Amino acid sequence: MLEKSVKSAFYKCKVSAATTLILLTPVIVVICCINAKTANAWGHLKHLESEFGQATLSYAAVNRHQINYCIEVDARNEQEFSEQSISEQTEMALALWLKVVSSVLNHIVAVHRVDCTSSNLDLEINLAPRALFDGSDLLCEGATRYLLRGAKPHVLIQIDTYYKFNASDTIHNFKQIVDNIGPTRVSLHEAMETANSLKQQAGDIGIEANVNDDVVASSTYPVLLHEIGHGFGLCDTDNDSDIDHERFVQTCDMAYVSSKEMQPESIMKRLNFFYLTDDDQQGVTEVVKRFIIFGKWRVPPPLNHRSSK
Ligand SMILES: [Zn+2]
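Above: query sequence and zinc ion SMILES. Below: predicted holo structure tokens.
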């Protein structure tokens, strides 16, 4: 029954995404939603070729050596999802991806938190209690959109604080789960560092915090880690059912997938990982290698080239 409701949610998400594209093109180019049950290993999103493609964060890392992000938390959620804790999780998620990207680029990529009205925004994190797709009754845990405001594209990651169609019937701030870890309380930052260095999965943290695996896997940090992977140009590549296969073919570039059949485990496959698997690292490495020539992103097409196709 639970599995059925999750699949149903996915399907509605896709319908809503298509509707949004029709209404708002060219402002919103791609939407992706996730849950704890589905999605597969590395594959590249389509249309990554320019600054105005869907590898906005990779482009910023290559060409500007810097990623500017902002956090916006709805007033109704400020207590449970404090900006400070979401900011720490965002910076850690970015740091894991950028460690890989920087090693390919051979230069450091700086991360700065800016105001959401900044003209140099690369990544906007938005938490609010609502359906993520306007005009739809569907809720997703998290979704990634690509926005063009003026001449500057940026990635918008939305997390629905009222999401209830996952196995844990809600979404928690990962900070609250960390607060459960005892007997010696650890900081959020320490918990994320440890999870990465020990290659922990949701079950490991669930045991430490005495909460169900699904609660951990559906919390803000793995959602951010997954969605930021989309911002670097990676797609969901789940291929197990007809609905999944349809999305796989629609959103992934079939010339750039690690496999068209069985794929290894990864954060882009399931919200189970608190580190980047070899497959995640390979996927983002291949994005950068595809497009960097003499230290710059290859041949940006004209602005009006970008569309919903
Ligand atoms: Zn996804």
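The pocket of zinc ion is lined by residues 32, 34, 39, 226, 230, 236 (CB under 6 Å).
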